[in-house]
Design goal:
The complex is a heterodimer of chains A (about 375) and B (about 280). Chain A has about 375 residues and is α+β, with helices and mostly antiparallel strands. Chain A has two domains: about 240 residues, Lipoprotein localisation LolA/LolB/LppX (outer membrane lipoprotein receptor (LolB), chain A, Clam); about 90 residues, no CATH class. Chain A has eight helices and 18 strands. Chain A has a twelve-stranded mixed beta sheet. The radius of gyration of chain A is 21 Å and the shape is globular. The two termini of chain B are about 30 Å apart. Chain B has one domain. In chain B, strands 1-2 form a two-stranded antiparallel ribbon. In chain B, strand 1 and strand 2 form a beta hairpin. Chain B has about 280 residues and is mainly α. Classes of the chains: A alpha+beta (about 375), B mainly alpha (about 280). At the A-B interface, helix 1 and strand 4 of A face helix 3, strand 2 and helix 11 of B.
Chain lengths: ~375, ~280
C-alpha cells in the first residue's frame, strides 16, 4: 500500500517533439474558452513574497486542516482547483478548502458564485450580448473574483498585449502529461517587476494549460497556475448548473441593462462583501487615471475621503475588520507624493496615500511614488 | 466435528465474549454516554441560539438535522473518539496480561495469532459502533429538532435527504477506518506493556503529538505522513460531485498504518514471553 503511493513514475519528461509554430500562429489559434469541454485539476501556486497580513494571507498549505478558503487565499501558497467546462459559456471552477469551498459556475448568461462559509450565493446576470471584453469587466461578471484557472490568467494577460511586449515561442513543454507549446511574453521596458510570462498552450487542443509569471530577480515563478490532470471530455450537465441550496443567502447582481446597480434578492448579512465594493469601482471608473504605459503603467484611483476613515471609525465585523487590520499592518512610507502605506510584493505594489489616492502597478514602490508626485 | 470447525467455533466464541466484555463494562458505557451527549448539546445549543453562521457544518444545522451528526463527528474526531478507541485498544492485550488471564487464554489453547485477530476485530467493531453512535444520536436529535430537508453540499447544490443519509454513512465509514488505524497503533503498544492504562495513554500521546506536529507549518514536509493528517478529509465526501483528492490519500494512509502496526503487534505478541 505504501509502495503504491511512493513508487510514482518519475521518468524525466523528455522535451516533446512538436512541429514549429510562430508566436502569431499560436496566438491566432489560442482558445481561452474550450469548445468541446474539459475537466481537470489545477494547482495554483503563488509566491508573491507578500508580508504576513491578518485576513489576507492564511499561510498557504490548503490541506485538510487548512482554514476556510476565499479568493484571497490564492495570493499565498499552494491551492488545488477543480475545473469543469463545456462550450464557450459553461464552466465551473471550485476552490477546495479544509471544510469549505468557493465555487464559480458560469451557465450561459448567469454566473453563480458560491461561498460555503456563511452559505452565500451571488447570482450575476450577464447582458445577452456582452459588448465589452476587457478583463476588468469579465472579472466583475464573475462576481468580482480574480482569475483562477490558466485560461482566465491567459485571458487577462493577452488582453493587454501591445507593442511593449516581445512575444516568442519557447521550447515545447509537457503539462499534465500532454505536449504543449510555450508562449513567452517578455516586457520590453525594464521598469516593471514582471520579468517574463510563460503560457503553455496545449499542442493538440490549443487551450492554455499553464501560466507562469516570473518576477525580476527570482528564479521560481511568482505565480504558477497549471493543470496537473486534464481530460478533454465533456463533463456532466449536473456539474455545470447551479441551484442555490435551501437556507442560503442569495444576492443578485444584475448587469443586463449595462449598469452595475446591484439588485438585491433576499438581503442578508452576506451582502456587504467584496462584490459590492467591486461594483463601486466600476461606477467610479472616471476617477481612475493611468500613468505610464505598457507593463510599467500605474493605475491611480481616488477613494471617497471617508472610505478609509470610515473603516477605522466604526465597529467592524468579519472581512471589513480583517481588511482594516491588514491595512494597519502595512509599513508606513513617506515620499515626495506624501505619506501613506505601501504593500510591496514580488509582482506588484500598492500605495495607499493618506490623501485617499490608491496607486497600483506591476512596479516597485519608488515608481509609484514618482507616479503620484 | 473437525479440528478446523472447532478452531473457528472457538474463535467465534472468543470474539463474542470479547464484544460482550467491551459493551458491558461500566467505564465503556460511561464513555458512550459522553460520546452521545455531544451531538445533543450541539443540537440544543443551536436550537436555543437560533442561528448557525460561522463554519459550514454548524451554519447548516438549522437547514438540515443531519448536520448535527456531521458537526458532532468533526468536534469529537480530534479527541473523544480516539480516546474511546485508545481505551479499548490499550486494554486489548495489556488488560489480559494485567489481570493475569493472558496466559490462561493461551493455555486454553488459543493461538496467539488468533487472539490478536479477535482483539483487532473487536476493536474494529467498537470503532464503527462509536462513530455510528455519534452519527445516529446526532441524526436522531437533529431530525427531531430541525427536520429532514434536502442536504446542502459544500459545493452548494443540495442532495435529497436519502442521498444525505448515504453521505453521512460514507463519512462514518471513512472515520471508522481512520480510528482503526489509530487503534492498530494502540494494539501494538498494548503488546509492549502489561499496564492497559499505560498503553491507552501512550496512544493518546501519539494522537495528540501527531495533531500538534500537523499544526506547525514549518513541518509541512512530514504532514501527509502523520496518522491524524487526513482525518478532516471527510469534507471531500460532502462535495458534489464527491472529490477523491484528499480522501484517497487518507484511505491509503489509514490502510498503511493499519498494516504496519498490526504486523508489528503480531511480531511482538508471537515472540514475547507470556508470564502473566
Amino acid at each position: 500500500m505504501v509502495g503504491a503511493t511512493l513508487v510514482v513514475p518519475t521518468i524525466a519528461a523528455a522535451e516533446p517533439d512538436l512541429p514549429e509554430v510562430t508566436a502569431a500562429e499560436l496566438l491566432a489559434n489560442l482558445r481561452t474558452e474550450p469548445v468541446d469541454g474539459l475537466s481537470g485539476t489545477v494547482v495554483h501556486r503563488a509566491d508573491l513574497g507578500l508580508p504576513a497580513l491578518p485576513g489576507l494571507t492564511d499561510g498557504g498549505g490548503g490541506g485538510p486542516v487548512g482554514s476556510p478558503v476565499d479568493a484571497t487565499s490564492l495570493l499565498d501558497g499552494e491551492h488545488t482547483l477543480r475545473v469543469w467546462a463545456a462550450g464557450p459559456d459553461r464552466a465551473r471552477v471550485a476552490l477546495h478548502g479544509g471544510m469549505s469551498e468557493l465555487a464559480v459556475v458560469v451557465d450561459g448568461d448567469e454566473v453563480w458564485v458560491w461561498r460555503s462559509e456563511g452559505a452565500t450565493v451571488t447570482q450575476v446576470l450577464l447582458p445577452e450580448h456582452p459588448t465589452t471584453d476587457d478583463a476588468g469587466h469579465r472579472a466583475k461578471a464573475r462576481g468580482g473574483l480574480p482569475p483562477m484557472t490558466p485560461a482566465e490568467y491567459a485571458d487577462v494577460l493577452l488582453a493587454s498585449l501591445d507593442p511593449s511586449t516581445e512575444v516568442s515561442v519557447g521550447a515545447p513543454v509537457t503539462v499534465a502529461g500532454r505536449p504543449a507549446y510555450e508562449l513567452v511574453l517578455d516586457p520590453r521596458s525594464d521598469g516593471t517587476l514582471v520579468d517574463q510570462v510563460r503560457i503553455a498552450v496545449d499542442a493538440a487542443d490549443r487551450v492554455p494549460t499553464r501560466v507562469q509569471v516570473h518576477a525580476v530577480g527570482h528564479s521560481a515563478p511568482a505565480i504558477d497556475v497549471g493543470f496537473t490532470d486534464l481530460s478533454l471530455t465533456r463533463p456532466d450537465d449536473d456539474v455545470l448548473t447551479f441551484t442555490p441550496p435551501p437556507g442560503a443567502t442569495t444576492d443578485v447582481l444584475d448587469l443586463t441593462d449595462g449598469t452595475d446597480k446591484p439588485a438585491t434578492g433576499r438581503d442578508g448579512e452576506g451582502s456587504n462583501d467584496a462584490d459590492d465594493t467591486d461594483a463601486d469601482d466600476g461606477e467610479k471608473a472616471d476617477q481612475v487615471t493611468v500613468v505610464g504605459d505598457g507593463w510599467s503603467r500605474v493605475l491611480i484611483a481616488t477613494l471617497p475621503p471617508d472610505a478609509l476613515a470610515g473603516l477605522a471609525g466604526q465597529e467592524l465585523t468579519g472581512e471589513a475588520s480583517e481588511l482594516a487590520a491588514g491595512l494597519e499592518a502595512l509599513p508606513r512610507v513617506d515620499g515626495p507624493a506624501g505619506a501613506g502605506r505601501l504593500l510591496q510584493s514580488r509582482l506588484f505594489s500598492v500605495l495607499l496615500l493618506d490623501d485617499g489616492r490608491v496607486l497600483i502597478g506591476a512596479v516597485d514602490g519608488d515608481t509609484l511614488q514618482a507616479a503620484a508626485g | 466435528m473437525s479440528a478446523a470447525d472447532g478452531a473457528v467455533g472457538m474463535t467465534w466464541r472468543l470474539f463474542t465474549s470479547e464484544l460482550r466484555l467491551i459493551y458491558t463494562r461500566r467505564r465503556n458505557l460511561a464513555g458512550a454516554v459522553v460520546l452521545a451527549a455531544v451531538p445533543v448539546i450541539i443540537a440544543i445549543a443551536i436550537k436555543v441560539d437560533g442561528g448557525g453562521g460561522g463554519s459550514f457544518l454548524f451554519g447548516q444545522i438549522p437547514v438540515n438535522g443531519l448536520f448535527v451528526a456531521l458537526a458532532a463527528l468533526m468536534v469529537q474526531m480530534p479527541f473523544f473518539l480516539p480516546t474511546a478507541v485508545a481505551v479499548i485498544a490499550g486494554d486489548s492485550v495489556a488488560g489480559e496480561a494485567n489481570v493475569g488471564t493472558l496466559r490462561y487464554l493461551l493455555v486454553v489453547p488459543v493461538e496467539r495469532t488468533r487472539l490478536l485477530v479477535v482483539k483487532f476485530a473487536a476493536m474494529v467493531v467498537f470503532a464503527a459502533s462509536a462513530t455510528l453512535l455519534v452519527a445516529g444520536v446526532g441524526s436522531a436529535v437533529g431530525v427531531a429538532l430541525f427536520g429532514t430537508g434536502p442536504l446542502p453540499t459544500l459545493s452548494g447544490p443540495a442532495l435529497t435527504f436519502g442521498e444525505g443519509v448515504g453521505r453521512v454513512l460514507l463519512v462514518c465509514a471513512y472515520l471508522t477506518l481512520c480510528l482503526v488505524a489509530i487503534g492498530s497503533i494502540g494494539l501494538f503498544i498494548s503488546t509492549l506493556t502489561e499496564q492497559p492504562l499505560g498503553a491507552t495513554i501512550g496512544l493518546l500521546v501519539v494522537v495528540l503529538t501527531s495533531q500538534i506536529l500537523d499544526a506547525i507549518p514549518q513541518l509541512s514536509v512530514i504532514h501527509e505522513y502523520l496518522p491524524t493528517h487526513w482525518w478532516l478529509a471527510f469534507a471531500d465526501l460532502l462535495r458534489d460531485p464527491v472529490s477523491l483528492d484528499t480522501v484517497t490519500p487518507g484511505v491509503l494512509s489509514a490502510l498503511a498504518y493499519t498494516a504496519i502496526f498490526t504486523t508489528a503487534a503480531w511480531a511482538r505478541l508471537t515472540t514475547k514471553d507470556i508470564t502473566s
